[in-house]
Structures
1.
Amino acid sequence: MKHLLWFAQVALHADRDRLNAGRHPTRTPQEHLAAAAQWLLRAQQATDDDGVAHSYDARRNRWIASYPETTGYVIPTLCDYADYGGDPRYRDAALRMARWEVAVQQPDGGVRAGTMATRPAVSTVFNTGQVLFGLERALRETGEPLFRDALVRAADWLLQAQDPDGCWRRFQSPLTTTRRATYNTRTAFGLVRAYQATADARYLQAADRNVAWALSTAHANGWLPDNCLGRHRDDRALTHTIAYALRGFLEVGAATGNRGYLDQARRMARAMAQAQAADGSLPGYCDPQWRGAVAWTCVTGNSQMAVNWLRLAQVDGDERWIAHAVAANRYNMSLQHLATANDNVRGALKGSHPLGAAYMPWRYPNWATKFFMDALMLETRPPNAAPAG
């Protein structure tokens, strides 16, 4: 009977979402941030190690095993939140995550594809790039050689895996069918962090090569081919991966002073701003003309784009980007359930709205909550505040 009641509640939630009734009154950004941070701690506690659960599966009422890739970039978010809210619990949790990342790093220096339950455990480029953010932040927080050694091993593995033209064609995740991923500019951004931590110019040069290659593939309107998870066709791309790629152009451009990279980031940001709905949401997929290709929204992508627009406002000094970010943030705030008694959901952000839509259906992935926190902190902190990874 209890099991049937659970399924009835999930079905009701999905029905409310489809009717667009699954939105809630918003509170202050600080209240939404606190609930999100608390949920990330619960997602760590839900595993049998110090990693963060990949997601909470609402349909099956279970937590998915720890996910090294996104645990890697949750680390700087929780460190930022420890500073933001003055609560050391979040830095302590983040450093436990970082030590766990070192413990599960592959012998070759890479980071495994998938969760800790995925077999076989094989190193993959994108996941390794994302863990650089956590290792760099842990090194900055502690100065411990343990983290520097792990950071260098991971960054060196990425250099060995990179093709001469800057593309990463080998060691793609076996969980996707992507042949070459232009969203690996986000991996290049991870190498910028490695360069900043070590002053090893090879890492910045490798980041520059990758972004130069990605830019060489772009269409005149800023559209990037090969920029979606698991798709061979180039008829649409997920907002999540569009935002990943944009951040890479922006941050590598800012680090190298390359105007071409920054111009590409601006082209993509303008196109996404034009696709934004009046309620602040973005379509889950866009087509090569930057038109919405689906009726649902990728909640993660909304927050990522808010971060991108806010970073462009910092880099360019152009405050017109801020309104787009605030609208996206307020929309996502309305999707966060703060009043439910269900600890598995309270404070979390779902993958898609409606809940059963195509990106992470029925799931509350840890990275949706991570990027939501990044976006709200960047909106409400001083204008020159450094962004998380």
2.
Amino acid sequence: MGHCTQSQFQPLNIAVLTLSDTRTFDNDTSGQFLEDALTEAGHKLVDRKLIKDDKYLIRSVISQWIADENVQVVISTGGTGFTKRDNTPEAVSVLFDRSIEGFGELFRHLSFLELGSSTVQSRALGGMANGTAIFCLPGSTGACRTGWKILAEQLDARHRPCNFVPHLKSVAE
């Protein structure tokens, strides 16, 4: 699997989507955490949106990013629980060419170590579509921190024995 790594860091173009019926950019601590974490890691924030938790609006925004030649990774926060308004898995999973089952499994494992059995209600998920990696995290800032523990490594071309970077579409420089 060592063929999936590089010796140098490769900055990625990442879009962040917050899904909430109540948050604004002023109080979106989860989206802000993700923006700060990815830029501190050396990646580029290419877009950030905050929209209502509406299945069709979610699909529309993420579909546009999947089709955008400059977006390599999408990270969403919110809408992965069990309330009536939590639509992220249903909205996004139909867009995947391939699911990344291990992402949700590992997220729930790490979350279990932090929260205990309540993590069974998390429907965090990941997948690939058109060379774009898509990761859907719960809405809490703590959950975004947990998810970033996984993503920081998997979005780093130097991480061994493998990472997602070689599977992402190339962007024009």
